[in-house]
Amino acid sequence: xxxxxxxxxxxxxxxxxxxxxxxxxxxxxxxxxxxxxxxxxxxxxxxxxxxxxxxxxxxxxxxxxxxxxxxxxxxxxxxxxxxxxxxxxxxxxxxxxxxxxxxxxxxxxxxxxxxxxxxxxxxxxxxxxxxxxxxxxxxxxxxxxxxxxxxxxxxxxxxxxxxxxxxxxxxxxxxxxxxxxxxxxxxxxxxxxxxxxxxxxxxxxxxxxxxxxxxxxxxxxxxxxxxxxxxxxxxxxxxxxxxxxxxxxxxxxxxxxxxxxxxxx
Length: 265
Prior knowledge:
Blueprint: E1 7-11, E2 17-22, E3 27-30, E4 35-38, E5 42-48, H1 53-58, H2 60-72, E6 78-84, E7 90-95, E8 100-106, E9 113-116, E10 121-125, E11 129-134, H3 138-143, E12 149-154, E13 158-164, E14 167-172, E15 177-181, E16 185-189, E17 193-198, H4 202-207, E18 213-218, E19 221-226, H5 230-240, H6 258-263
Antiparallel strand pairs: 1-2, 2-7, 3-6, 3-10, 4-7, 5-6, 8-13, 9-12, 9-16, 10-13, 11-12, 14-19, 15-18, 16-19, 17-18
């Protein structure tokens, strides 16, 4: 394996955290701001890039390119590496940013690649490449809920992503398709075909409250769906807060504004 082999345990229900167990000289990389706690023998270092073998082969310019792409997803230029430099087994933990579930992904079981929403990545074993995936289709980029850019995780190690609310895993057979709210899509394997489909019916479009578009996912492959996208949670909190300027709460309908109509949130 190119990635470090790590053991883990997930704790909690609504606000979960993952505890990573490291052997001597093993390293886990994490998104900035996800750190919760660690044993004192573990050393933290801020790194430019993700420390994967893929970047090491390309040199400094590959690191610069990868870091620059991360800015497009709204993430930091840097990742944080936690390395066990002592003896025995030591532990480091990373917490969920909001209520939901942490999804453990063994990339070696998914042909070495998972594509996920751009703010889903939490942490991974060193050796996993954290990059971005550009949408090749105009419609998907404009109306797919995630824009033109999603994250991709490549390698043969463990990676952990976070999603809102409850998460369900769907196995799609060859040719089998599933329609999903564009904001509820968390992750998909490399062979799943992802496109968008417009809602049918004038009444549904203007008064259905579900937005103009679905995400169409076609197998073969695996997809992960969340019940509570963060954008929906934030909108509900904002709608419940006192507002001097008014504002509707009809999610995705014509009464809720053109922006909500387009993205279903």
